[in-house]
UniProtKB/TrEMBL annotation:
It comes from Streptomyces gibsoniae. Residues 14-341 form the Enoyl reductase (ER) domain. Belongs to the zinc-containing alcohol dehydrogenase family. The lineage of its organism: Bacteria, Bacillati, Actinomycetota, Actinomycetes, Kitasatosporales. Its EC number is 1.1.1.2. This is alcohol dehydrogenase (NADP(+)).
Amino acid sequence: MTTVAAYAAPAAKAPLERTTIERREVGEFDVLIDIKFAGICHSDIHQAREGWGEAIFPMVPGHEIAGVVSEVGSGVTKFKVGDRVGVGCMVDSCRECENCKAGFEQYCLKGMVGTYNAVGKDGRPTHGGYSQKIVVDENYTVRIPDGLSLDVAAPLLCAGVTTFSPLRHWNAGPGKKVAIIGLGGLGHMAVKIAHAMGAEVTVLSQSLRKKDDGLKLGADHYYATSDPKTFEELQGTFDLIVSTVSAPLDFGAYLSLVKVDGALANVGAPEEPISLNLFSLIGGRKTLAGSLIGGIRETQEMLDFCAEHGIGAEIELISASEINEAYERVLNSDVRYRFVIDTATI
């Protein structure tokens, strides 16, 4: 085992604090990554505060990891020392079920192994990116193209692929009208990616406070959902709506904006259950769907796409000592648009 410094939540809802954790020795097919940057995802807060249910503590969050390979196992063929790499939301899966074999490891029928707040095949809890180093199987590691700086690439490992996947699945592109609910850490990436795919992009936000930002990021239109006229004007407009918010919505109202045979895909995960009148689906053969991150192959495709189109996250770089403050600011929507930890400060 190797001991490395990290920031961990010692218990649910407790402030994160500096500590040390053990990383396994580099196995035959493992890579040791010197973590350079780690994004702060709203998921980190949900899990560190047990908003999604019972969790494992102490917890080292972080599944938006960008770094450099410093050691490789004897059987590694995909990476070499010095390569720029990333790790997203999972570090293993069964590799045998139909979903894993199809490249949808995130939907592993036996359950993927999360980068943190999970138990690995060795029976030990996994720890994430708020740390100096991590050991990961090469098959769950992706290459960060040279065209992307590591700091703005880190959030792509969750926010990027989480929005890329449904946009690609529901064929966002030329001739398609796509709406993004929320302009936060996920939403701003969705706008950039949908725009690069060639779709006509609309942001649906509570207010017009971030309108100028949204238009600069690539949105063609921007509407305030607090204005009832928005729902009248946009009725039956969109081929696809992607909801990036983690609060319950009036899904009947938002489904009214979807065209016949269109879809409303959720990537935000509220802690509370929702209610739905099924007539809002039946009246238009509409789809209310969900999408979870992306598989390893799709994550690499997303990184290559973002490099090709010059897309990185809009970030605020912070030191590790600012993590707890950053959590509160995320909850207050006071970040434009993703906090990224400089792990050299851990």
